[in-house]
Design brief:
This protein has helices spanning 3-9, 42-55, 72-76, 84-90, 122-133, 152-160, 172-187, 204-222, 238-245, 250-253, 258-272, 286-293; strands at residues 29-35, 60-65, 99-100, 106-108, 141-148, 163-168, 193-201, 227-235. With 295 residues, the chain is of the alpha/beta class.
């Protein structure tokens, strides 16, 4: 099935009931939105995907895990007084540093320009995930906006999630770096399932060709055990940059724009896909798994 055919089939709807299969566990569905290369639009995808899921009736938390270069609060136009650094430094609970954004979406912001956060200590990892596990608000989805690359923080947040959504574009550097991230997570940490989203493309054929290239390389060098699932593409749309300048999500500001409609279809696709089997109980237990896998 071509990407365009897929997108045509996934017509947006104004509201969806919360999936019963998501209610079978107390743990939220945790998705790391990640990339090998910076500048591919990962944070914008997190913001708009989160808002699209919220509009479908799901309770969503966005975590800005691009520690040191955070920007989710800026993209949403949220004025914050504290962030995750204050939780570490002042031992505040996460409920004290989680803010409400447009449409009721929850945001855990992070600071920008704090070098101490570029490599979290084991204590900080344990503190963060334990706090998340005890967060009193009911959540259906947690979207983690990781940094780019293969740093310790990026790997940690990818391993702390149940699902990994890799963002790339059709530039050779973006595809090479996406492969490098997938390779490390697969060969060193045993992660074998990845979702792939192509961003800022002019035509669906560009996304399909880039995906086939990455799939071919992954199959050849990592084997058939590594599974890539293609979720489609977000089109190049000037409405996105206009929304960024106004510090709003494009889905909120220009709901009929091509990019906005793509975010709605992406959210519906994720909503209808069953989450993977729970392998570690709940989010609090993922830190042990991560520390055991560290090299």
């Amino acid at each position: 099935m071509s990407t365009q055919t897929l997108l045509n089939e996934l017509e947006p709807a104004p509201h969806f009931p919360i999936p019963e299969k998501w209610r079978q566990t107390q743990a939220p569905r945790v998705i790391a939105v990640t990339s090998g290369k910076g500048g591919v639009g990962k944070s914008n995808i997190v913001v708009n995907l989160g808002i699209a899921l919220t509009q479908m009736g799901l309770k969503v938390l966005l975590i800005d895990a691009d520690l040191g270069l955070a920007n989710l609060d800026i993209l949403l136009g949220i004025k914050i007084k504290s962030n995750i650094y204050d939780a570490f430094l002042l031992k505040k609970s996460l409920s004290e540093v989680i803010f409400e954004g447009p449409g009721g979406i929850k945001v855990l912001p992070a600071p920008s320009g704090i070098p101490e956060l570029t490599n979290l200590s084991d204590y900080q990892k344990l503190f963060l995930l334990t706090e998340l596990d005890h967060y009193s608000e009911d959540l259906d989805v947690v979207l983690i906006d990781t940094g780019a690359g293969i740093s310790g923080n990026v790997l940690f947040f990818n391993l702390a999630a149940r699902e990994r959504l890799v963002v790339a574009n059709n530039e050779p550097t973006a595809l090479i770096d996406a492969y490098a991230l997938i390779k490390i997570l697969a060969t060193r940490h045993g992660e074998t399932r990845f979702k792939l989203l192509m961003n800022n493309l002019s035509h669906p054929r560009e996304g399909e060709a880039a995906f086939r290239t990455l799939l071919k390389v992954t199959s050849r060098f990592l084997g058939l055990d590594v599974v890539l699932e293609y979720l489609g593409y977000i089109p190049c749309d000037p409405a996105i940059s206009q929304a960024v300048m106004r510090q709003q999500a494009v889905l909120t500001l220009y709901p009929e724009a091509p990019a906005s409609q793509s975010f709605i279809r992406l959210a519906q696709r994720l909503r209808d896909d069953p989450p993977p089997p729970e392998v570690a109980g709940n989010i609090r237990l993922f830190w042990r798994r991560m520390l055991q896998c560290q090299t």
